[in-house]
Amino acid sequence: MVRPHLPLNALRAFEAAARHASFTQAANELNVTQAAVSHQVKLLESRLDVALFKRLPRGLLITPEGEALLPIMQDSFDRMAEMLERLETGRVRDILMVGAVGTFAVGWLLPRLPDFQARHPLIEIRLSTHNNRADIAAEGLDYAVRFGDGGWHGTEAIPLFEAPLSPLCIPRIAELLHEPGDLKHHTLLRSYREHEWTSWFEAAGVHATPPLARGIVFDSSLAMMDAALQGAGVALCPPRMFTRQLASGAIRQPFDLHTSMGSYWLTRLKSRPVTPAMHAFEDWLGEVTTPHRAMDTGHFPERRPLP
């Protein structure tokens, strides 16, 4: 974009005068004379061919044209001042501490982070993963992405999208599965939430739930998927988090049947002030997950504050 010559002195004089509604007070702030401020504002009005103030005996009254210009000037000067301060103090990049469920981090977030970084090159995300147990305060996190119903004490929880579960397995096992009841002949890998398989079988219309194998209980869908890739059994995982494995053919989804056990939520402490970097990350997530929300849930409240 080719910019015209910007009359920075005049714009600065206008912004200060509008803020104080006084040429005199603006002059005191800028350490110049009242006549100099008045002259700069007149130059700006002449260039724009509009009146920015009505001169009154006891001060200034900003015009509609001035009201339209003022917030743009304030935002621009604030942003310049912030960047100069960051450069002076060596804080060129903002640090954003994000903790996320490992499955969400690897299966969904990491492939999309280059887009965020391209849009916000001065924000450095430091990502840590967890197994859905996060202590935001103790870990110094700005945000934590968690899976559940949104009910975490002392947090504001913003819904991202649901991640329904479905059986996933290697092709050799998938070829033996023609109907949901066939799963009773195979090892069913499970998480610490034992009712997940029961819920899926109910959704599939199988009322006599096959017994679950007594073996490893996984606290992560990532580990469960690794076991499934090795042929250890059938995993009940969210297909959306394993699109690469499904696309490559390494894993198959034998049945287009799902059960929903919760959603992914972006959470932060209510007591945590929201920084510009946090705003940027939250807005970006809202943008890139909007199609998921509409497709998966039909309706989600924009925010869900919690006690």
UniProtKB/TrEMBL annotation:
The keyword Transcription applies. InterPro entries: LysR-type_TF_proteobact-type, LysR_HTH_N, LysR_subst-bd, WH-like_DNA-bd_sf, WH_DNA-bd_sf. It comes from the Bacteria. Gene3D superfamilies: Periplasmic binding protein-like II, Winged helix-like DNA-binding domain superfamily/Winged helix DNA-binding domain. Residues 6-63 form the HTH lysR-type domain. Pfam families: HTH_1, LysR_substrate. GO terms for molecular function: DNA-binding transcription factor activity; sequence-specific DNA binding. GO terms for biological process: DNA-templated transcription. PANTHER family: HTH-TYPE TRANSCRIPTIONAL ACTIVATOR AMPR (PTHR30537:SF70), HTH-TYPE TRANSCRIPTIONAL REGULATOR (PTHR30537). This is LysR family transcriptional regulator.
